[in-house]
Specification:
The protein is mainly β and 81 residues long. It has one domain. Helices cover 11% and strands 43% of the residues. The protein is built from one helix and five strands. A five-stranded mixed beta sheet has the order 2-1-5-4-3, with no helix packed on it. Strand 3 and strand 4 form a beta hairpin. The longest helix is centred in the last third of the chain and has 9 residues. The radius of gyration is 13 Å and the shape is elongated. The N and C termini lie far apart (28 Å). The model has no long low-confidence stretch (mean pLDDT 91).
Length: 81
């Protein structure tokens, strides 16, 4: 399925949009990496029920992935680059 992903670096920043093919729609709280060193957390998912060339829109904001790893795993295991 096609999903339109909108992501931004800061809460007040402008959105960048891409359309990707995926097996499922990302859910709130999940992490996305549209590029090796940029990780974003999903903050809103919209399932598109009207006629469109994509099935969902997802909004995600940049996170400090090293901090997320330390909180979740106790250490940094992937630096992404």
């Amino acid at each position: 399925m096609k999903v339109r992903i909108h992501h931004r670096d800061r809460q007040s920043g402008s959105w960048t949009s891409i359309v990707v093919e995926t097996d499922h729609v990302p859910e709130i709280g999940q992490l996305l990496a549209p590029a090796p060193v940029h990780v974003f957390r999903v903050v809103l998912t919209l399932h598109v029920l009207f006629d469109s060339d994509y099935q969902a829109e997802v909004f995600a904001e940049h996170v400090d992935f090293e901090e997320v790893q330390r909180e979740s795993l106790g250490s940094v295991v992937w630096k992404g680059g």
